[in-house]
Write a structure and sequence with these properties.
about 35% helix, single chain, three-stranded antiparallel β-sheet, alpha+beta, 12 strands, five-stranded antiparallel β-sheet, about 350 residues
Length: about 350
């Protein structure tokens, strides 16, 4: 899409430095521009040229290795308890503001969600201790429109101050309606504070427009979705891995490219998630894809509580002691070949000439 329709798009759409970097990386990925190496079959002697990947986090071709490395690190941190999957969504009334101040709004979102979950976990009515949870930012919906939300994976329990573990009730973590109200309150408070502190341009956000915006976001409940993932710790990590290294659209969902449009496969939530084909003008497709380029250096995966960066080793050791759980196995560095075989891509290691 970028090679075919990109030149016309760039004549009228200047790119920011971050978007230009993503654009160049995707175009260069697995081409001679990034160099490569020659593989020789040790059986028949046939050779082939293999070009290097860009490893950009927005490139749909480059996420499998990154995801597997990330999951290998997380396997040492998962606890032998049930886990819960929660999703916190921002209302679409804020989309224009997010377009102007993405870094500031994304930081507010992480702050509001993490503070809400930590506050509920610390409350003795629910858990009364320090939780363990990870947050992953997503900014898109099926048609590539802006839909900003955070996925949370949270251990079903918490470590109390006396060193004991308190477990969540089976199938229940926190009340969703209460979560929604507290989350909305914390985010709106952060929004007002950012405007007062000058992080948001007051000249652009005049008083009456600001009041109208706040009235809109208070008109309805903010969506908080929660469910308990099935399976043990290994299945929980695989479940989270579906979300951590996704990009706005996978290549397999692009069904066709014509002279002026791109056809993509989408799930229609209004019809029971049935799949259908959506035809977008090429310029619109590129516009929407670039909506989801993250600010430079922004961390879209973050960990909190027992697995937060500060004192993680000692806190996890205390949690395992409370749960009478063994220490994790030592990290084993996996070979490239073993990785490829495990993720079912061993066909790529076969010689195309002799098999």
């Amino acid at each position: 899409v970028l090679r075919r329709h990109g030149p016309a798009y760039l004549t009228s759409h200047p790119l920011s430095a971050a978007k230009a970097k993503v654009w160049r990386a995707i175009l260069a990925c697995r081409t001679a521009a990034l160099g490569g190496h020659v593989e020789t079959c040790d059986d028949c002697g046939a050779t082939r040229h293999v070009y290097h990947s860009c490893r950009n986090r927005h490139c749909p071709l480059c996420q499998t290795r990154a995801k597997e490395a990330w999951l290998a690190a997380r396997r040492r941190e998962v606890l032998p308890v049930p886990y819960f999957h929660l999703v916190f969504t921002l209302p679409h009334d804020l989309n224009a503001l997010i377009g102007q101040y993405p870094r500031a709004l994304y930081e507010m979102l992480f702050g509001a969600v993490s503070a809400t979950l930590a506050e509920f976990a610390a409350d003795s009515r629910w858990l009364g201790g320090t939780p363990a949870f990870s947050l992953v930012l997503h900014t898109w919906k099926q048609d590539l429109g802006r839909h900003v939300h955070v996925h949370a994976l949270m251990a079903g329990g918490a470590l109390k101050a006396d060193g004991t573990w308190v477990a969540a009730k089976r199938g229940f973590l926190f009340p969703n309606k209460a979560l929604s109200k507290v989350y909305r309150g914390k985010f709106v408070a952060a929004l007002n504070a950012a405007r007062e502190d000058g992080k948001l341009n007051k000249a652009q956000l005049v008083e009456h427009a600001w009041r109208d915006l706040l009235a809109c976001v208070h008109q309805h409940d903010w969506v908080v979705y929660a469910k308990e993932p099935l399976g043990g710790p290994a299945q929980v990590l695989e479940y989270l891995g579906r979300y951590t290294h996704r990009v706005a659209i996978a290549n397999e969902r692009i069904l066709g490219i014509s002279a002026d449009a791109v056809s993509v496969r989408v799930r229609d939530s209004t019809q029971g998630n049935r799949k259908r084909t959506l035809r977008l003008p090429a310029q619109t497709f590129i516009d929407r894809f670039l909506l989801h380029v993250l600010p430079k250096g922004f961390k879209r995966i973050r960990h909190y509580g027992l697995i937060g960066p500060a004192h993680k080793t000692t806190r996890l050791a205390a949690a395992r002691a409370a749960l009478d759980a063994p220490a994790p196995d030592p990290v084993v560095v996996e070979s490239v070949e073993a990785l490829m075989r495990r993720i079912n891509q061993h066909q790529r290691l076969r010689c195309p000439h002799c098999g």
